[in-house]
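mind reviewing these tokens:
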Amino acid sequence: MPTSPETLTEARRLRDLFAAKGGRVIKADVLQPAGTLLDLYGEDIRARSYLTADPLRGEMVLRPDFTVPVVQMHMESRADPARYTYSGKVFRKQEEDETRANEYVQVGYEVFDGQNPAAADAEVFAAIADGLSGLPVRAATGDIGVLMAAVRGLNTTDARKAALLRHIWRPARFRALLKRFGSGAVAPSRVALLAADDPFASVTSDIGLRSRAEVEARIAALRADAVAPPIAKDEIGLIDAILNLRETATNVLSALRDIAVDMPAIGDAVTRMDARLAALDARGVDVAALEFEGSYGRTSLEYYDGFVFGFYAVDRPELPPVATGGRYDALTAQLGQGRAVPAVGGVIRPDLALEIRTC
């Protein structure tokens, strides 16, 4: 069971393990202000989280994970560097699979340290692997930073790049946008609107929440996009090549170096991956056998912007990941009022660890 006594005992074991590695034990309120999550991820978060209204505190959310409250706490403390560990319930709606738990325990380890990001990535990955030691799991890794760098390097408008970056975590929407930006076509529903000399000519009153100025700004943006040249097929091909990578990490690194010849914008991200693999190797991780997927991590909450990883039950592919984690530097800047601290963390589900241990 996700919250059984056995699960709670295993959670304490894992938390104590991470505390022994330097993590300060912390707690976070179960009820969190919803405004922060809505500002970060938009209205889509409502489909995944339990929200309620408090007459004094406004809209609140049952904690969907620990990362946001931990980052908020850290940015207020201004500790540098810092390591934290925690254990507690999180709550997620399950709209498609009723067999998946909508409340379960997470145990996490978070590192805020900008001195050597590659070493911090390796530290967290190795700590999570240590917590799962002896279990029949396989590791998968990815790097959202490579894809983000590729998008930022496209020869297109800033507005189009911003739209693609915003939808990196929505693969179907990202693909549809990339196809449209590559074709130069305008959606039929917008043709008349964009062609009209005065789109407000037949409007007798304002309806809706947007002001006329906001609507005018949106129309201007759509018109600018309509006349922008399409993204080159070669560049879209390079994006596809990155997304389709699925090999061992060392082989992917070699492939990315080749792609970087035609897309120099990913050069720094490839260099960071090289340093990370060296740091993982120094911690005893067999990087020559470590799986890497170019599209990995794109269906998680939208705060990962670099290294991402997960551990999966070898003999139970139907189970959710036993552990996940990644780097989220941009989130610290968003929650730190302009102050950013490089950060990486990971979480384990002790209930799943127990389930595969007893199989």
Notes: DSSP finds 14 helices and twelve strands in the chain. The longest strand covers residues 82-91. The chain has a mean pLDDT of 89. Residues 137-171+232-313 form one domain.
